[in-house]
Amino acid sequence: MFDTHLIEQQLDALAQQVPGTGEVGFSFAGGQCRCELESVDRIGCAVRVVHVSYSPIDVPRMRKLADQLCRQLHYLVEPLRVVEVDNEATAVQVRSDPPSRTSTGRTYYELLVRPDRLELVRYEAPSGEQRRRISMHLTREVLIRLIGDLTGTVSRI
Q1: Is the peptide bond before 98 cis (omega within 30 degrees of 0)?
Q2: What is the pLDDT of residues 124-148, one digit of tens each?
Q3: Domain range list for the chain
Q4: Which residues contact 5 (CB under 8 A, 6 or more apart)?
């Protein structure tokens, strides 16, 4: 378990700044968590990426971590599913399934689990164009829950 007040204080400090961008993060038993924020206000934030680093694990444990996070993060916009386990690249790729459809294409989460870190991002893929990273728009409450779920699950693997 992590100190939610620490993240709340960091978010409050960023919300007071103009333009309200920056990072929040902390260390936990076995790793570190860092979130890059595009903007923060009293209610929510635009999150560019969530990074979690941890002690190295093997591919079966990476898959177990990915599977547990797919079940745990059910409150995100779309459900998550493991789409690839790449033994050569030593990575497990998780994506929204199904992705959200928009009038111009689709948007989806991507969680990449590596031996010593994971990264959660959101992409937009306009029809006929290359995908591009976009911010995850989360309430502060959901961001704090997400951080707790990511770091808690990593701690238990």
Answers
A1: yes
A2: 999 889 999 999 999 999 999 999 9
A3: 4-156
A4: none
